[in-house]
Automatic annotation (TrEMBL), chains A, B:
GO biological process: small molecule metabolic process
Family membership: Belongs to the FAH family.
Species for this entry: Oerskovia enterophila
SUPFAM superfamilies: FAH (SSF56529)
Residue intervals passing through the bilayer: none
InterPro entries: FAH, Fumarylacetoacetase-like_C, Fumarylacetoacetase_C_sf, Rv2993c-like_N
Record protein name field: Homoprotocatechuate catabolism bifunctional isomerase/decarboxylase
Residue stretches making up the Fumarylacetoacetase-like C-terminal domain: 68-247
Leader peptide range in chain numbering: none
Keywords carried by this UniProt record: Isomerase, Metal-binding
Entry's Gene Ontology molecular function annotations: isomerase activity; metal ion binding
Stretches assigned to the Rv2993c-like N-terminal domain: 1-50
Record Pfam families: FAA_hydrolase, Rv2993c-like_N
Amino acid sequence: MRLARIATPTGPRPVVQDGDVWAVVVDHHSPGLERTGETHPVDGARLLAPCEPRVVLGMAHNSGPADRLVPPQAFTKSARTVVGPGEPVRLDPAAGKVVVEGELAIVIARTARHLTPEQVPGVILGWTVGNDVTAYEQSALDDKFTQSKNGDGFTPLGPWIETDLAVAGVADLAIDVQVDGATQAEASTSGLAWDVVEQLVYLTSHLTLGPGDVVLTGSPGTSAHVVPGQTSAITIEGIGTLTNPIV
Amino acid sequence: MRLARIATPTGPRPVVQDGDVWAVVVDHHSPGLERTGETHPVDGARLLAPCEPRVVLGMAHNSGPADRLVPPQAFTKSARTVVGPGEPVRLDPAAGKVVVEGELAIVIARTARHLTPEQVPGVILGWTVGNDVTAYEQSALDDKFTQSKNGDGFTPLGPWIETDLAVAGVADLAIDVQVDGATQAEASTSGLAWDVVEQLVYLTSHLTLGPGDVVLTGSPGTSAHVVPGQTSAITIEGIGTLTNPIV
């Protein structure tokens, strides 16, 4: 099932895909996904970021087996960095060079704290494509990543939330990162050092997550340099493609 | 003028103090602070966190003159850590020892990016008391501060937003940190290495702030150890006192 948010003449709406229409729902987090009766054709609908996180977390150094030799670590991103499909990623020349990073993103369904591994599947609403845009020259100057991770439009999410993948089903999904139509990086979620269950057990041992929050699971070799005028397109197998202009 | 948010039988309300009543306003950020006509007596009103930030930033190592020898640095806190006066700060034994940190908190009025020093006063809605609760043994394990700064209730704010202090007026405000009624730390905002103007110029050179966002300006020697069962009370001259139980 695909959950999304779309723009309508009377404002944004949370929706679920029913065949060739987006059916408006009361709330992505309401039991049974109660439909309001309002529908919009899938063709031509403008998709927004599929959720409105209060908390956006990214996993640091989670790119390969060697990263299991050090403890997991995460950073928080400003919720104001979230944009949807087609919205611009704005580069600031003063921030230096920038990469896009294609990442599996977890969307949280409900309040989650001190999770056991067995509890993890129950708090996941679904999965979307995340782009953890990073001004990486700033990371060297600021170990807290505040300077590198929070530029305008630095967290594209979308195109929708896929709910039909189980936790086991995201263990080996292909991630393809294209810039202007040419593949710049190809990898798989199997390259992540700490898997989704381990990440949510770790993160919720330190803080509370809630409905709509997002965890960017890490970049297993899925980054690509970008400059203004280019377009990034990140595809994750079984989810979809997230496309954003770089300006 | 004091802006606050109060609990009412029909939900939270943004308010402004008019003598002995809290007058409900459409929005703290609406021009002219348009009143709805609804009022509540100041006596007995339950105060909530005075704003609902999407972004909470804290200044790192901003405690004295030596901190000017290294570049300014900041960390982001989960917006889910924000609580109001009287709400509990919840300690997790697994996180180790905890301090409360009494800090002047800036509340942002409007979208702010790439500010010049001259533009800073125009984006400040007002000031409140912030408590940047920190599980400091976690800071040594996690230089990103994700583990140390995001426990439940780790960002008490309140009791209200004082709008009558100019930027120059917050340069030397006394901060008093009490635990169970005994003063544990006394200092002044004059001890901050980077002042409010420098902070907002620095932060908005890297990211966008918006209405209701909060910057915790740093702890100039205003921290105190706490354990469950105690109560912290932080007073900033000209603003008020923020009291929270530690559980």
